[in-house]
Input
Amino acid sequence: MNRIDIDYGHELNGRQKANRNTAKLSAVVAGRGYSIMWFSDDYNGADLIALREDGERRCCPLTKVFT
Output
């Protein structure tokens, strides 16, 4: 099956880009055992928290992840 990447970068507003980047990051970190909890407001400077089953958590500002 041939799949073509679609470039949505120029068609999305800021909020839509943040949602797309969160989904991309969630897919990447799922392979490492994390799940993403995204906040609509900042939590101690973080836009999202990556949680692991063993209790480990990482706070990430989304703007620094995909720039």
Remarks:
- Strands lie at 34-43, 46-52, 57-60.
- DSSP finds two helices and three strands in the chain.
- The chain has a mean pLDDT of 80.
